[in-house]
Design brief:
The structure is a single chain. The chain is mainly α and about 300 residues long. It has a domain at about 10-220. It has twelve helices and two strands. Strands 1-2 form a two-stranded antiparallel ribbon. Strand 1 and strand 2 (about 140) form a beta hairpin. The termini are far apart. The mean pLDDT is about 85.
């Protein structure tokens, strides 16, 4: 266990946390404003990755592919909202869960039909390839730093949008008291559509950004959706600030925990047992962390006031 390794894993945790935030931000807005449980939100992440792969192969330029993938992900999210999700807003949560699970199954099979079941690889943009020397002898991939910078920029933009604009005011009011917002003459259906589309675009952006460092494959959004739900539960449903803080904490706990849990257990157990136990406990750390947070703050760190 060295300070250098800890710093590297902290950067990896920050990068992972920011990707989680991009997914969880849209999810917490949809859940907080619309009271709609969307299990298919992870599919938007997968679709964003596939769009980035397809447009990169078509144009040969990742930057241009990203610019094309974002509006396409937005349009796809709005299409799903109009065709499927709009008809579920007045249904109970069980109906929403079952219907959105069906959307997951359908779209996972759809991408297999269009792109095949084999994983796709997206090359890292040449301008962001290579590594940068952070300190003496410590190199870190430039593209991962670009993900961190992009995530922080989007988080800042989202904060300004939610806190300083009229649309953001309506979103915050909708998360707090949707009945009053509707009574004041706001078109709730249009507000719901804007929130849903924006959340879908954020998830698609996250998928597009990770495409060059992960395999693009069917079902890639399923596991990260679980972590996104953990983020919004810890942060507080409907809270962007809570989602940001919780995502960073989850990213650090997961990444650093997986690296150092076996080493820490060696202080108490023999090396073989510590290694085996550490690998078993590491994936559980985020859920232990969630339970600890909810024990002291059952509504999350920054719940939306109602």
């Amino acid at each position: 266990m060295t300070a250098t390794l800890l710093f590297i894993q902290a950067l990896n945790g920050l990068q992972f946390g920011l990707i989680l935030f991009l997914i969880a931000a849209g999810l917490t807005l949809v859940f907080g404003v619309m009271d709609f449980i969307n299990l298919a939100h992870g599919v938007q992440y997968m679709v964003g990755a596939y769009l980035a792969a397809a447009f990169t192969a078509w144009t040969g330029n990742f930057g241009l592919a990203l610019l094309l993938a974002l509006p396409t992900a937005l349009a796809f999210g709005l299409l799903l909202e109009v065709l499927v999700f709009r008809h579920l807003y007045d249904r109970d949560h069980l109906d929403q869960v079952l219907a959105t699970f069906g959307v997951i199954v359908f779209l996972n099979q759809a991408v297999k039909f269009v792109w095949g079941a084999a994983p796709l690889n997206v090359p890292v943009p040449e301008i962001l390839s290579g590594s940068v020397e952070i300190t003496d002898g410590l190199l870190y991939p430039v593209y991962r730093l670009a993900i961190i910078a992009a995530g922080l920029a989007v988080a800042l933009l989202l904060y300004v949008l939610v806190s300083r604009t009229r649309v953001g005011m309506l979103v915050r009011a909708g998360a707090t008291n949707p009945e009053m917002v509707s009574a004041l003459g706001v078109n709730i259906q249009r507000l719901f559509m804007v929130v849903f589309g924006f959340g879908a675009m954020l998830a698609g952006f996250a998928g597009a950004m990770v495409a060059p460092i992960l395999s693009v494959e069917p079902g890639m959004g399923d596991n990260i959706l679980i972590l996104a739900f953990v983020v919004i539960v810890i942060g507080g449903i409907g809270s962007i600030r809570g989602a940001f803080l919780a995502a960073i904490l989850i990213g650090l706990v997961d990444t650093v925990g997986r690296s150092f849990a076996p080493n820490i257990l060696r202080f108490f157990l023999d090396p073989a047992t510590a290694s085996q136990t550490g690998r078993a406990i590491a994936p559980m750390l985020i859920y232990i962390f969630m339970a600890a947070i909810l024990f002291f703050r059952p509504s999350g760190l920054f719940p939306a006031k109602r």
